[in-house]
Amino acid sequence: MSFKLYGYERNPRTRIIRILVGIQQQYSEKWLMQSVKAEAEGIQLAIHQVVPRQGIGKDDYKSKFPLSAGKIPGLEGPDIQLTETLAIAMYLAKIANKSRLLGDGSIVQEAEVLMWMSWANQELLQTLARWFLPLIPSFTDPAPYSMGPRC
C-alpha cells in the first residue's frame, strides 16, 4: 500500500510514525520530499514536507486536512485521510502486521498501550516542548498545539 505522510523530519509526532513503520530513508535532491519505504511490511510511505511555522507546505496541507488546524502529521492513503498521531499510529500498526506493538492482542493490553501513547503525546511531548523550544532560535511562533481551542 502507498501512503503520504505530511510532516517534517524533526517533528516528534512525525518521527513517531516513521519509527513505527520501521522506515529506510532515501533522500531526494530536493529537501521538500523524502521517499521512505517499509517494504518488509508492504507499506510505501512518501514524506511530504510540511513545516507550519515556516509556511512550508502549510496551505496545501490545510486544504487537504481542513480540520487539522495546521497540526501535523497527516496521513493520506487509499480511501483514508487521518490526522492525529495516535490514530495514524494505531492504523499503521494494524495494517503493517505490527500487532505486537499493541500488546499481546488482548483488548486490555491494547487499551493500556493506547493509554501510554496518549499520555506521551499529550503530557510528555507538551512538557518537553515548553522546556526546550525556547532555546531554539527558529521556533519563535507558537505551534498550533499551544494556541488553545478554536471555537
UniProtKB/TrEMBL annotation:
GO terms for biological process, alphabetical: translational elongation
Origin superkingdom: Eukaryota
Domain GST N-terminal: 1-100
GO cellular component: a single term: cytoplasm
Family membership: Belongs to the GST superfamily.
UniProt protein name: GST N-terminal domain-containing protein
Organism: Xylona heveae (strain CBS 132557 / TC161)
